[in-house]
Known about the structure:
The complex is a heterodimer. Chain A is mainly β. Chain A has strands at residues 5-7, 10-13, 19-24, 31-37, 44-50, 53-57, 65-68, 75-79, 88-95, 107-108, 112-116. In chain A, the strands form two sheets. In chain A, strands 2, 4, 5, 6, 9, 10 and 11 form a seven-stranded mixed beta sheet that branches. A four-stranded antiparallel beta sheet of chain A has the order 1-3-8-7, with no helix packed on it. Chain B is globular and about 45 Å long. In chain B, strand 4 (32-38) and strand 5 form a beta hairpin. By secondary structure, chain B is mainly β.
Amino acid sequence: EPEVTQTPSHQVTQMGQEVILRCVPISNHLYFYWYRQILGQKVEFLVSFYNNEISEKSEIFDDQFSVERPDGSNFTLKIRSTKLEDSAMYFCASSTREGRRGTDTQYFGPGTRLTVL
Amino acid sequence: DQQVKQNSPSLSVQEGRISILNCDYTNSMFDYFLWYKKYPAEGPTFLISISSIKDKNEDGRFTVFLNKSAKHLSLHIVPSQPGDSAVYFCAASAIQSNTGKLIFGQGTTLQVKP
């Protein structure tokens, strides 16, 4: 069964450093998402991406964040200058949204645990 | 932002019995609802979904009920098994509004006792 994969599983970085989190979505999916979950809190939306551009972003997704689909398979989240409060689990998701049928099942990867020291 | 609420942080049931997990929402634009199961240090695993044009969807041991007038949905697991022990998240989206973002509830930790 196809699945979303993410690397690395755990990333430790110093405050102020840049990190890139990588995701390989399910191959026939067209919509891509990043979510995060701070320890003890709910899963929260960061950004959605379709047709090589951001379709929606949350207030959390400020200028320090960027996303890219550098080739036909990878989808990346970059944090330019990490802060302590960026420590969280970051989840990538993908879907084949079918708006007319009213379905949009998003499949999630296993996550990357980001620890900012 | 409390658009999706799961008011019970935890639920404990005996193996073989029914587990009922509840979820309430406030945004009337939501038209697609999903339940995810999550183990510690793993990503959410999709379980079952329901579109707002339906009031029930069943998949094996899992059934989701949607009451639009009450803005309430529930997940029934029958019979419950110890392997069902996990955190269950309710999520909602507004597909017809062309936004795919999922809004999650806080989660309910289900423990199924042997």
